[in-house]
Design brief:
The complex is a heterodimer of chains A (97) and B (406). Chain A has 97 residues and is mostly helical. Chain A is built from 4 helices and no strands. In chain A, helix 1 packs across helix 2 and helix 1 crosses helix 4. Chain A starts with 6 loop residues before the first helix and ends in an 11-residue tail after the last helix. Chain B is 34% helix and 19% strand. In chain B, helix 2 crosses helix 6, helix 7 crosses helix 14 and helix 10 crosses helix 11. Chain B has 14 helices and 14 strands. With 406 residues, chain B is α/β, with parallel strands linked by helices. The chains are: A mainly alpha (97), B alpha/beta (406). Chains A and B meet through helix 2 and helix 3 of A and loops of B.
Chain lengths: 97, 406
């Protein structure tokens, strides 16, 4: 298990491993979806898991542009920060564990 | 294919473009889209707001007393379209004919609205019960059954559910039944009413719905737009139709089908190409005889270039000359009813000598290098046409139509 000091990235990578049913250590920030063998349905499943886990909504246009693990992590971070920055009480920054 | 030739002698349609054949065809030839803001649900909870909905629909204008209570919206549409098709055919439905008639429909999702309503009450609003008619309203064969009940048809009646290919499979089966002599008449088509919140949320999650409108084959296409409605065709043996002096719209000349066995949602080139070739063979048509294809043309980034390659694979150089349009740009993607709506568009194109356009088109896409009849209908008399349906699940169904002078 390649532990990072970044809990958000760690959580996203764990979700990718779970969706793809592959060992967590095979997922790293530099991997592309193609390298991980993710097809369009895997992508959809991942977006659903990520949206649910972080209580965010990922727009279709942004979703379509995502090709690498790093892009997912960066995209999620941006949306989570935007939600917490806005301070909307109905949109907590992260789902309760 | 050996057997009797099959004529189309009646058409009925009820969709976002119009409440009958005349209104619908006039919108199709004008390139007028029926896509607009969805009113059936609160779209503020959705990432897309538009659909090809039948706006201002009032069941009381079509059904007497409590009759409509027994039918979900999708089955009501089926009955409305079937009534028009039968009236249009000017057939005398004798007891002998009713015994030898079939109803074959396509519907993919059945009574979504009734199901959603019942389950919202149960799960969300704390109701301990759902409506006792929820089962007969939601079953996807309800459209076929209600059409059989409406006319007293006692021959074979059934529904096919193959996602977006449902009504092409239905029409293809109906063709084979009339052709083989199993029945003397078939009322066949499709019906769908998919605008329920739960179902729209499921489409949202698939990320294939355009936020604006449906722009098939256009470089800026962003996906499909859902539609609703029904279309029904009356099929009878050509000889019988000629003998009674019927108005014959066209010949339903062939049917081809295939399975991709490739991926549950990604389209393929080989499967659709195989189905188009099978339809041509069944209709005894040479590729060069086909002047128009009503494309599956969903407007998703994946479908349109793949369908283009499939058409090119089947038609070669002629693929660049024949005209192709996606009328989903106007009536939306009505899922199980899509093939039936598109059959009506294709039949009318053959009959009237006018090819309906691909509406909402802005920019050519080199990956979709076909003559897609952008935005303006074209006065061209073609002799034969195909109508493509390719479903999620990799199930392909293609119909072939031939012009008849009658």
């Amino acid at each position: 298990m390649s532990a990072t000091s970044d809990p958000l990235a760690e959580k996203v990578m764990a979700l990718i491993a779970a969706v793809k049913r592959i060992p967590r250590e095979q997922v790293s920030l530099d991997k592309s979806f193609e390298e991980l063998g993710m097809d369009s349905l895997d992508n959809m499943n991942l977006l659903f898991e990520v949206e649910s886990a972080f209580n965010i909504n990922i727009p279709d246009e942004e979703a379509r542009a995502i090709r690498t693990v790093r892009e997912v992590v960066d995209g999620v971070r941006k949306l989570v920060e935007a939600a917490s920055g806005a301070g909307a009480p109905s949109q907590p920054a992260a789902a309760p564990e | 294919m050996a057997g009797r030739r099959v004529a189309i002698t009646g058409l009925g349609v009820f969709c976002a473009l119009g409440s009958d054949l005349e209104e619908t065809w006039s919108a199709l030839r004008a390139g007028r889209s029926g896509i607009g803001p969805i009113t059936a649900v609160d779209t503020s909870q959705l990432r897309f707001q538009n659909g090809a909905e039948i706006r201002g629909y009032d069941p009381a204008r079509h059904f007497q007393g409590n009759q409509a209570d027994f039918l979900d919206r999708f089955a009501q549409f089926a009955v409305i379209a079937a009534r028009e098709a039968v009236r249009d055919s000017r057939l005398a439905l004798s007891p002998a004919l009713l015994e030898n008639a079939a109803v074959v429909t396509g519907s993919c999702v059945g009574g979504q609205c009734s199901q959603d309503e019942g389950f919202v009450g149960l799960y969300k609003n704390g109701s301990p019960r759902v409506h006792p008619l929820t089962i007969p309203r939601t079953m996807s064969n309800a459209g076929a059954s209600q059409v059989a009940l409406e006319f007293g048809i006692t021959g074979p009646a059934f529904n096919l559910s193959t996602a977006c290919s449902s009504s092409n499979h239905a029409l293809g089966l109906a063709l084979q039944m009339v052709r083989s002599g199993q029945v003397e008449l078939a009322i066949s088509g499709g019906c769908e009413a998919p605008f329920s919140m739960g179902f729209l949320k499921a489409w949202e999650a698939m990320r294939v719905i355009a936020p604006d409108t449906c722009r098939p084959f256009s470089k800026d296409r962003k996906g499909m737009v859902l539609g609703e409605g029904a279309a029904m065709l009356v099929l009878e043996p050509l000889e019988a139709a000629q003998a009674r002096g019927a108005r014959i719209y066209a010949e339903l000349a062939g049917f081809g089908m295939s399975s991709d066995a490739h991926h549950i949602t990604q389209p393929s080139v080989e499967g659709p190409a195989k189905a188009m070739r099978a339809a041509l063979r069944d209709a005894a048509l040479r590729p060069e005889e086909v002047g128009y294809i009503n494309a599956h043309g969903t407007g998703t980034p994946a479908n349109d270039p793949t369908e283009t390659r499939a058409i090119r694979a089947v038609f070669g150089e002629h693929g660049g000359r024949l005209a192709v349009s996606s009328t989903k740009s106007m009536h939306g993607h009505a899922l199980g009813a899509a093939g039936a709506l598109e059959a009506v568009a294709t039949v009318m194109a053959l009959r009237e000598g006018v090819l309906p356009p691909t509406a909402n088109f802005t920019t050519a896409d080199p990956e979709c290098d076909l003559d897609v009849i952008p935005n303006q209908a074209r006065a061209t008399q073609v002799e034969a046409a195909l109508s493509n349906s390719f479903a999620f699940g990799g199930l392909n169904a293609v119909l072939a139509f031939r012009r008849l002078n009658a």
